[in-house]
Amino acid sequence: MSQFIDIGALNDIPPRGARLVRAPEGEIAVFRTATDAVFAVDEWLPGKAGPLSNGIQHGQCVTDPMYNWVFDLETGEAQGADEGSLRVWETRIENGRVLLTRDVLGELRASA
Amino acid sequence: MTQKLIIIGAGMASGRALEHLVEQAPNAYDVTLFNAEPRGNYNRIMLSPVLSGDKTFDEIVTHTAEWYEENGVTCRFGEHIVSIDRANKTVTADNGDVLPYDKLMFGTGSNPFIIPLPGHDLEGVIAYRDLEDTNRMVALGDKPGARAVVIGGGLLGLEAAAGLKNRGVDVTVVHIMGHLMERQLDEAAGYLLRKALVDKGITVMCSANSKEIVGEDGHVKALMLDDGTELPCDLLVMAVGIRPNVALAKAADLTTDKGILVNDQMVTSDESIVAVGECVEHAGAIFGLVAPLYDQAKVVAKTLIGEAATFVNKEVATKLKVTGCDLFSAGDFAEGEGREDIVFRDPARGVYKRLVLEGNKLVGAVMYGDTADGNWFFGLIKDGEDISEMRDTLIFGPAFQGGSPVDPMAAVAALPADAEICGCNGVCKGDVVAAIEGGAHTLDAVKATSKAASSCGGCSGLVEQLLSVTLGDEFAMPTKETVCKCTDLSHDEVRKLIVAGEMKSMPQAMQELNWSTPDGCHVCRPALNYYLVCSWPDEYADDGKSRFINERVHANIQKDGTYSVVPRMLGGITTPDELRAIADAADKYDIPTVKVTGGQRIDLLGVKKEDLPAIWYDLGEAGMMSGQAYAKGLRTVKTCVGTDHCRFGTQDSTGLGIKIEEAMWGAWSPHKFKLAVTGCPRNCAEATCKDLGIICVDSGYQILVGGAAGLDLLEAQLLAQVATEEEAIEYSCAFYQLYREGAQYLHRPYKWIKKVGLDWVKEQIVEDAENRKALADRFHFSQKFFQVDPWAERARKGVDSHEFKPLADLTDQRMAAE
Ligand code: SRM
Ligand SMILES: Cc1cc2nc3c(=O)[nH]c(=O)nc-3n(C[C@H](O)[C@H](O)[C@H](O)COP(=O)(O)OP(=O)(O)OC[C@H]3O[C@@H](n4cnc5c(N)ncnc54)[C@H](O)[C@@H]3O)c2cc1C
Ligand code: SF4
Ligand code: FES
């Protein structure tokens, strides 16, 4: 069984854009950078930041729309003076499709 | 005994392999060379200079008839192999000849990919791959007034376009992505390339989707884009990519995937058959440039003579020459964990260089305009050298001898003498420099002698830079606040330079203004986007990705991620029908809170993001549009009931408020802009604390500006008193435009007035009738492009639909399990 789930075409996410994915593990924001890298992190850092798919993307970072925290999309770490980190989910691009790790299925993962 | 070797395809790879073979083992094989093209090996890369007229075909032939003869190669050009019988080890040519082989070599190259658009099979639709294609394009140049469209803004497409243009053909390049050559170049370099091509007279359309090829009598007539644009053409060149040519191998049951699978020795799944060139797939990789193919050629020759050799797919740099433009890209320039960028820009010379570092290593490089150091950088990438010692000076290349660091003054230095520096007083760069050279060595002295910077002061920063550029160390630059860490320029400087330098896109502005990051940050991008929107309302394409979420999705985000929706109610006037529609929408979409705002309208709070387009649709059906309650732009015009109902009313305050809101809705500004029109000095609409307030009096209208009732509390001050409604509207629009054009991003009018002075504002608007009219005209011109209801665009035309729908829902177990 593949470790990844096809969640859509790369072109469904505009460059520097983001889309939301609902998963058993929670809401996940999937980003496409200007250079076509794809990253997935939790949509919310509860009590601190989110919904991150609504933020402004620059380089490999996103700025939180609520309180302007900046997160590195690859590590999930808050940058600068802020402290906190988002869960990061593995992604892949294959033949123009975006694949997201099955880990997002949480408990369903085993039964799937 | 000599063995028989049959080669299918006389291409660049098989040609090179053949050279190695006859050199190292002249008598090992009796070679027969088939080629579908009616000619032998030639340098395909050089088809570009043949197209542009710099070379003839004869000059690019790599192997002559004599060469084949001397080396005993039997040539069967213009003939192709139609099938292979692996069991009996024979091939069949198209004339039916059956030839036995001991070894067989595939060198069948690639096929250009033709997008199956309607009309792709019309006469006059060609690819760019061989001499026939090239000759078709050359012939078009002989036809006066000929037009061509090239689909594809990659290397090949641009070569075709540049060549056609050289031949006098009118060319348009249609590219689906946002910038040219997006695989090899980042946005900034793509912008410079586009500029160079446009300067040559080539029309370049990016983010353009082809829909259909239109024909007449079986011949291509035009390309139609999905937005309805029709591009007439006599020839349509598709250069959208290549696919390994595997059909013959597949038919012979060799193992293929994207290409013909080969091992490190270039042997296919049949040990008597080897393959080389673009038709192969090695360790998952396929090929499109010759460098690795030449390595393969060496290996395949060794394999054929029974010597050990291994093909290693090395990192390749693409040093590209799109006729006349210098580009270089190597390695991996995508962002990644722990990666850092070093950016160097020289706007005057049109140079852009970007290095991507990972830890102490260089992993990627993109360059435009000056690629002299490309190979040196490529070497560092390939060898994985530790660059920590030279990190600070790396970007200056190997010849760096401790020279000057990146020059923040480059943008000003690059402006031509007639570029306007001071808009208020019409002073150009040449005048300022003349004043400085004439002895004005301080900002005040320049103000006194040239008048520059003597009015609003917005250009002071630029004048100081000119002082510094002209006088060198003699002038001490005062320290200033920059927009953000991505630039050394202040807001005022950026604004002025965007106008003076006619910068009309974000990558262009970042390039010409020497931005130190590849694509800015959340601080500078919204500011730049606003300055561009304001400066070029008709030409600049708004960049939603550079707007804060509220402006991007046209609603206010709430702390739980839902949104609030505030429809516009001009002048605070509504109708029973509108109220019913609002009530129905509140029911239908389960709106938890309906509130009357402080801006005289109704707010529906707690709308789910996915419901936004639908609720907008319903409100739109009832005639309502966005109230832009989220915008750095025109918000509300509050009014009182005025003469219509009130015993004290002196003028129709409600009517005037509605007229002003009708004129101003949709406008963007540095910050929000709120107005009020009140019917008498009792001030029931609170006009005295607005950005612009109008108090109606018996003799006319008092126009007040610069009020505040938010973070600061300030009473608005009198700008002018006028007699008629028309004047009141003209003054209001002129004031708004002056603020739009002058204030720094995120400054409300009161902050801006504090900087430029109310007297100066009066000079511009009250004392100078001509200027007032010009400002109002510019405002109305801009409104032609921005008075479009963003809700209708999204609810009815599907604009930005990706913003409102999740990409996938994996919470459903069945779906997750599929
Ligand atoms: C809805 C409303 C309150 C209400 O229920 O009445 C409101 C709601 C918000 N205001 Fe306001 N302001 C509202 C009238 C006002 C007023 C009164 C007025 O307009 O007459 C003021 C004082 C006047 C002024 O603007 O100077 C006002 C001064 C502010 C400020 C301070 C601005 C300043 O320059 O000092 C902010 C913060 C900002 O913009 O940076 C703000 C920001 C906000 C934001 C957008 C906060 C945010 O960024 O998320 C609030 C959105 C809440 C939401 O849930 O969507 N709001 N806000 C009012 C909408 C008016 C409308 O119909 O468009
Ligand atoms: C205009 C142009 C510019 C280019 N510029 C560059 C550049 O600047 N740098 C770079 O590195 N690369 C460049 N390339 C790419 C480069 O030319 C190719 O990578 C290279 O030619 C591939 O070599 P090959 O031997 O695999 O295939 P080819 O050179 O395509 O040769 C394959 C041959 O096989 C023949 N054939 C196919 N099937 C059969 C059959 N069944 N029977 C008989 N014959 C058959 C074909 O007719 C063809 O002649 C350019 C290509 C083009 C078209
Ligand atoms: S401002 Fe004057 S005219 Fe308007 S409602 Fe109040 S009292 Fe009446
Ligand atoms: S632009 Fe120079 S003083 Fe206003």
Automatic annotation (TrEMBL), chain A:
Enzyme Commission no: 1.7.1.4
Annotated GO MF terms: 2 iron, 2 sulfur cluster binding; metal ion binding; nitrite reductase [NAD(P)H] activity
EC category: oxidoreductase
Protein name, entry field: Assimilatory nitrite reductase [NAD(P)H] small subunit
Residues in Rieske domain copies: 5-100
InterPro entries: Rieske-like_NirD, Rieske_2Fe-2S, Rieske_2Fe-2S_sf
Cited NCBIfam families: nirD_assim_sml
Keywords per UniProt: 2Fe-2S, Iron, Iron-sulfur, Metal-binding, Nitrate assimilation, Oxidoreductase
Domain of life the protein comes from: Bacteria
One biological process term in Gene Ontology: nitrate assimilation
TrEMBL record, chain B:
InterPro entries assigned: BFD-like_2Fe2S-bd_dom, BFD-like_2Fe2S-bd_dom_sf, FAD/NAD-bd_sf, FAD/NAD-binding_dom, FAD/NAD-linked_Rdtase_dimer_sf, NasD-like, NiRdtase/SiRdtase_haem-b_fer, Nit/Sulf_reduc_fer-like_dom_sf
Cofactor note: Binds 1 [4Fe-4S] cluster per subunit. Binds 1 siroheme per subunit.
Residue span(s) of domain Nitrite/sulphite reductase 4Fe-4S: 631-771
Keyword annotations from UniProtKB, A to Z: 2Fe-2S, 4Fe-4S, FAD, Flavoprotein, Heme, Iron, Iron-sulfur, Metal-binding, Nitrate assimilation, Oxidoreductase
Domain FAD/NAD(P)-binding: from-to ranges: 4-280
Every BFD-like [2Fe-2S]-binding domain range: 421-467, 483-532
Claim: Flavoprotein is one of the keywords in the record: yes
Positions annotated to bind [4Fe-4S] cluster: 640, 646, 680, 684
Domain Nitrite/Sulfite reductase ferredoxin-like: 558-621
Enzyme class per UniProt: oxidoreductase
Pfam families: Fer2_BFD (PF04324), NIR_SIR (PF01077), NIR_SIR_ferr (PF03460), Pyr_redox_2 (PF07992), Rubredoxin_C (PF18267)
UniProt: siroheme binding residues: 684
Cofactor(s) the record lists: FAD; [4Fe-4S] cluster; [2Fe-2S] cluster; siroheme
Family indicated by similarity: Belongs to the nitrite and sulfite reductase 4Fe-4S domain family.
Record-given protein name: Nitrite reductase [NAD(P)H]
Organism whose genome encodes this protein: Shimia thalassica
